[in-house]
């Protein structure tokens, strides 16, 4: 009746769910379980299913490596390329991508694909710099480094890795 | 066998429950997603060099393309609006479905470039679960509009309608199941790739130090903790146990009281000690809080909630009065 308080969630439904809805939910539950178990078995990701293998390997106190992207300015200086400068990819994605391409290039003895990818990044950097989307300096080249550290329990040598250029490009 | 399992299965998934907990979870989960992704831009993915394109199976199988920047921008706007609408519960069926469909595309897009991240897979499943659920039946603008409509059309039969249903229980259980599979798979990956050495060696201490070399966590506590003898092993055993036994939260209240806070703290530790951010994933923990019980306590302590809530009979039954609790709720109530 007008003006009378009704429950805020008045609903027209049976207390027992329909068999179809129950089957739908059961099927969904089975898909969630089966999909995840398959990925756990194969140790592969099929997003949004996943095996969740991050940090699953044992780390030992021994020398280790990482990769970094550096830019070369017209006067020959080197500057680290940060996520702010690389746009949406971010360095966390660029690093594994470039390293994968590098290894692929080595396997197939075709370094062109790696060079093209880095050249694309350099062009993208410059375009976005000209659009003032970041405040980095002008770059005429990029270098993809592999950094190697001896393990130190206090990370005192963090800023002094051994560096080796894996590949580089110049515009 | 099936005849014996079926009642247990149905009781687990479909025992009647009031709508409060699911509705609060909807409100918070979509609200948190909206807040988290409000500043995120998706259109720039259209400009990324195809040299980096390494499609994940769902994009490859269904030949899903990267849309143009303009189309991605449009998708982004619609998605964010749908998240907001789903949170407040307006056109809930439509907004939750849109949030899921555009969410799986927009969130999935980045995994095609470089690496597959693992922070947003569970939220995608949760969006699907909520899209299939009746999460907009309470604490929503839809419910308020429905009440007004019923009031103006004077439908007295509405008062006699049931206020508890399995429709309000299964989505909560399904979210618990998703999180259980995530943690279980994570434990299996560790055991299969490294065995017990993962937990019993210096592994975690070394990892804490190593990530300080390139992740730059917000604090250097990780370095200090890594140098405490036995700390890594303690954390390793704890983390592996939490992940491996997390599926127990599906069946045990004790497990929910111990493993869920444990997992939450573990991920908080990942963020501050290792610089590994699982914020979006952590939104899923709202599904473990018994909001009905919490609202009941708040109403008792603070008259504001008693007046401001005026939630209606159904929520009172769930959140306000234990005497009105359905028996099945009192035995299988979530954490």
Description:
The complex is a heterodimer of chains A (171) and B (335). Chain A is an alpha+beta fold. Chain A has helices at residues 19-42, 83-86, 90-108, 112-130; strands spanning 64-72, 78-80, 141-149, 162-170. Chain A has a four-stranded antiparallel β-sheet with strand order 2-1-3-4. In chain A, strand 1 (64-72) and strand 2 form a beta hairpin. Chain A starts with 18 loop residues before the first helix and ends with a strand. Chain B is built from 18 helices and no strands. Chain B has helices at 2-14, 20-37, 57-61, 69-88, 92-109, 121-132, 141-153, 170-194, 197-200, 203-214, 221-226, 231-245, 253-274, 279-282, 291-301, 303-309, 313-320, 327-332. The relative contact order of chain B is 0.14. Chains A and B meet through helix 1, helix 3 and helix 4 of A and helix 1, helix 6, helix 7, helix 8 and helix 10 of B.
Please tally the β strands of chain B and state the result: 0
Structural class of chain B: mainly alpha
Helix content of chain A: 25-40%
Q: What coarse outline of chain A follows from CA principal-axis ratios? A: elongated
First-to-last CA distance of chain B: 30 Å
Enumerate the strands of the largest sheet of chain A in spatial order, edge to edge or round the barrel.
Answer: 2-1-3-4
Overall structural class of chain A, as computed from helix and strand content, comes to: alpha+beta
Describe the sheet with the most strands of chain A: 4 strands, antiparallel
N-to-C SSE string of chain A, H for helix and E for strand: HEEHHHEE
Q: So how many helices of chain A?
A: 4
Q: Compute the number of strand runs of chain A.
A: 4
Low-confidence stretches of chain B: 307-335
Largest sheet of chain B: none
What percent of residues of chain B are in strands? under 5%
Computed over alpha carbons, the radius of gyration of chain A is 26 Å
Quaternary: heterodimer
Task: Determine the mean pLDDT of chain A.
Answer: 88
Coarse morphology of chain B: globular
Instruction: Tell me roughly what share of residues is in helical segments of chain B.
Output: 55-70%
Instruction: Tell me the number of helical segments of chain B per DSSP (H or I, 4 or more residues long).
Output: 18
Biggest contact: A-B, 73 and 96 residues
């Amino acid at each position: 009746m007008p003006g009378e308080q009704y429950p805020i969630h008045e609903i027209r439904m049976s207390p027992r769910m329909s068999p179809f809805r129950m089957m739908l939910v059961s099927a969904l539950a089975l898909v969630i379980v089966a999909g995840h178990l398959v990925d756990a078995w194969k140790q592969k990701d099929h997003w949004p299913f996943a095996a969740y293998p991050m940090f699953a390997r044992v780390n030992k106190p021994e020398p280790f490596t990482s990769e970094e992207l550096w830019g070369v300015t017209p006067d020959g200086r080197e500057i680290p390329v940060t996520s702010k400068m690389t746009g949406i990819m971010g360095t966390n994605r660029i690093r594994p991508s470039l390293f994968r391409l590098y290894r692929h290039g080595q396997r197939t003895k075709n370094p062109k694909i790696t060079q093209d990818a880095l050249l694309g990044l350099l062009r993208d950097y410059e375009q976005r710099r000209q659009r003032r989307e970041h405040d980095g300096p002008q770059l005429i080249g990029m270098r993809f480094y592999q950094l190697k550290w001896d393990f130190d329990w206090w990370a005192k040598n963090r800023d002094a890795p051994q560096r080796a250029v894996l590949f580089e490009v110049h515009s | 066998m099936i005849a014996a399992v079926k009642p247990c299965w149905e009781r687990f998934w479909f025992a009647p429950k009031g709508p409060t907990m699911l509705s609060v979870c909807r409100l918070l989960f979509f609200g948190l997603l909206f807040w988290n992704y409000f500043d995120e831009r998706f259109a720039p993915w259209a400009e990324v060099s195809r040299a980096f394109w390494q499609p994940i199976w769902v994009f490859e199988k269904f030949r899903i393309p990267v849309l143009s920047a303009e189309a991605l921008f449009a998708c982004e706007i619609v998605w964010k609006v749908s998240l907001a609408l789903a949170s407040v519960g307006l056109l809930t069926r439509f907004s939750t479905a849109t949030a899921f469909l555009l969410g799986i595309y927009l969130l999935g897009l980045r995994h095609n470039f470089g690496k597959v991240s693992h922070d947003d897979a569970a939220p995608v499943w949760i969006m699907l679960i909520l899209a299939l659920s009746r999460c907009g039946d309470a604490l929503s603008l839809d419910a308020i509009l429905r009440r007004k409509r019923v009031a103006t059309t004077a439908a007295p039969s509405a008062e006699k309608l049931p206020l508890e249903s399995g429709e309000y229980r299964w989505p909560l259980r399904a979210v618990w199941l998703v999180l259980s599979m995530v943690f279980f798979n994570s434990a299996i990956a560790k055991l299969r790739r490294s065995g017990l050495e993962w937990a019993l060696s210096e592994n975690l201490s070394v990892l804490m130090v190593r990530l300080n070399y390139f992740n730059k966590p917000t604090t250097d506590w990780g370095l200090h903790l890594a140098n405490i003898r036995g700390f890594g092993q303690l954390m390793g055993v704890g983390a592996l146990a939490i992940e491996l036994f997390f599926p127990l939260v599906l069946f045990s209240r004790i497990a929910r009281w111990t493993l869920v806070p444990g997992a939450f703290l573990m991920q908080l530790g990942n963020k501050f000690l290792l610089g590994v951010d699982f914020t979006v994933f952590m939104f899923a923990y709202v599904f473990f809080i018994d909001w009905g019980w919490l609202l009941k306590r708040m109403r008792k302590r603070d008259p504001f909630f008693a007046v401001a809530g005026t939630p209606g009979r159904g929520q009172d039954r769930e959140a306000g009065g234990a005497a009105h609790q359905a028996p099945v709720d009192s035995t299988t109530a979530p954490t």
